[in-house]
Hints:
By secondary structure, the chain is an alpha/beta fold. The protein has helices at residues 18-33, 39-43, 51-58, 63-77, 87-96, 109-118, 142-151, 165-174, 189-194, 204-210; strands at residues 5-8, 100-104, 127-129, 158-162, 177-181, 199-201.
Amino acid sequence: MRFPVVLFDLDGTVIDSGAIILASMRHAAKEVLGAEPPDELLMAAVGGPGLEAQMQALAPDRVEELVTVYRAHNEPLHEQLVCCAGIDDLLVRLKDEGRRLGLVTAKRRATVTLAFDVLPLEHLFEAVVGGDETKRHKPDPEPLLLAAKRMEVDPGDCAYVGDSPFDMRAAKAAGMFAVAVTWGGIHDRAKLEREEPDAIVDTAEDLHGVL
């Protein structure tokens, strides 16, 4: 096999959460700021340094309030979550092939648990790194390197699969093979292409082909 260790982002890569993230961003902006910023602005930082950083871009002096309102709206929506097309079957297939899988996400571990309560995939991942477990966040490589450390593997043996520019920068900085997926609907293909990932794929089957 080409990569014995495959690490995944969560939002927009494993779980189809773009719509609920956008709905909650819109809700928080409306409730707290009385504003309706363009969707592109609301989603620009998703998958990067974390929710606080996303809100910092909207209103630096209202971050705490925005985060609180966002989470109150967003967490119940996790009950609607589904997997990205074909990814659940692919994860099982990769495990059956003897790959070791990990998850590195900007979500807090508590919110990751909410997702896995609905979509029982956690048993497939040997290591899970949440956004509240490191001092630095994607695009910094620290979260990816922590996953590799927990799994006791060389970063050079790992592929990292994600749907955001932040994922691609973090993977490259960590010395991992960077695979961009286009199905998340959070960041468009052109943004991903500008990061020059090692591979860019449109389907779960395509992803298997590059791993």
